[in-house]
Amino acid sequence: MIDIIDLGLKIGGVEILSKISLTLHGGEIVGLLGAGGSGKSALLRSIAGEYRRFDGEILIDARPLLSFSRRELARTITFHAGPPENPEETVGEFLKLARAPFKKMLDPLSDYDLQLVDECLAGFGLEEKLDMPLGTLSGAFLQRAMLAFCFARNTDVLLLDEPTAGLDIRSLVLLQKMLYRHVIGGKKTAIVGSNDLNFIAQTADRIIILEGGTPVMMGGAEIIDTDTVKRFFGIDVFVSKNVYNGKPNVHFFPEN
Q1: Mean pLDDT across the stretch 190-219?
Q2: Which of 203, 195, 133, 189 is nearest to 161 (CA)?
Q3: Distance between CA atoms of 129 and 154, rounded to whole angstroms?
Q4: CA distance 227 to 235
Q5: In which order are the strands placed within the sheet that holds 63-64?
Q6: Are 7 and 19 in contact (CB under 8 A)?
Q7: Rg, the chain, Cα only
Q8: Within 10 A of 242 (CB to CB), how many other CB atoms are there?
Q9: What's this model's pTM, rounded to 2 decimal places?
Q10: What is the dihedral of CA 155, 68, 52, 20, to 10 degrees?
Q11: How far apart, in Å, are the Cα atoms of 142 and each of 51, 113, 167, 177, 182?
């Protein structure tokens, strides 16, 4: 469980986050929505421990985030953002690195580690890309590999920042299935910051809309309606219901 208590963040004297208090539970997929500059990435980075100076407190299972060592953070929280550092590394080698925080120095990866890597390769349809360098992958497959790395880390807290960017339709379906699988045991929490209204509406158990660095609306998929989209994103849309699950589908009007 993640408890965020009166969180505030300033960068260069500019207030980015303000008085955020939230409790995020195990077994929950939380979707963060908001226009550009609303604070989604800053909140994710704060939970990831990338910012060490902030007001308020972040607790992970009742323990202050700032008390975690780097190794403990790597074993507890996974944050998805940015391209891989070494484009010459193969997909298989890259995914194995996800398990590095859990092994002792000089020891090989355990059977459990290798099983997790294989499951994530399969989960994101990357088996045929196993020996390909990351730098040779198309945009969608590279994003799949980055996401597979995060899921192979298999931490209690999974933070994804714009994970649907560059994904094709099949990749979106695979990501959704992997998110469901990740939290199904009831202990792990996934927090997804995104501008993809439909993916969040169809996937998240709870949606939090940020504006000006603070939560301004929270609820289930039902909060995504024409008024909400107009208010926070400034565009007119038509919202229908998915015939299979009753959740909202957002339809954008073509510009004249």
Answers
A1: 96
A2: 195
A3: 21
A4: 9
A5: 14-24, 2-11, 55-60, 63-64
A6: yes
A7: 19
A8: 13
A9: 0.93
A10: 60
A11: 27, 21, 9, 18, 20
Residue 256 has pLDDT above 70, yes or no: no
Name the token pair of 148. Answer: 């597979």
H-run or E-run covering 239: strand 237-241
Task: Please classify residue 229 by burial: count the beta carbons closer than 10 Å to its beta carbon, then call 0-12 exposed, 13-18 middle and 19+ buried.
Answer: buried
CA distances from 232 to 110, 112, 140, 180, 226 (A): 47, 44, 29, 27, 10
Q: Which residues pair with 250 in a beta bridge?
A: 239
Neighbouring CB atoms inside 10 A of 135's CB total: 12
Q: Which domains does the chain carry?
A: 2-252 (3.40.50.300)
pLDDT at 81: 66
pLDDT (tens digit per residue) in 211-251: 999 999 999 999 999 999 999 999 999 999 988 888 999 99
Burial of 128 by CB count in 10 Å (0-12 exposed, 13-18 middle, 19+ buried)? exposed
Q: Which residues contact 179 (CB under 8 A, 6 or more apart)?
A: 29, 190, 192, 203
Residue 71, burial from CB neighbour count under 10 angstroms (0-12, 13-18, 19+): exposed
The encoded tokens of residue 29 equal 């997929």
Could you report the per-residue pLDDT of 144-160, keeping only the tens digit for each?
999 999 999 999 999 99
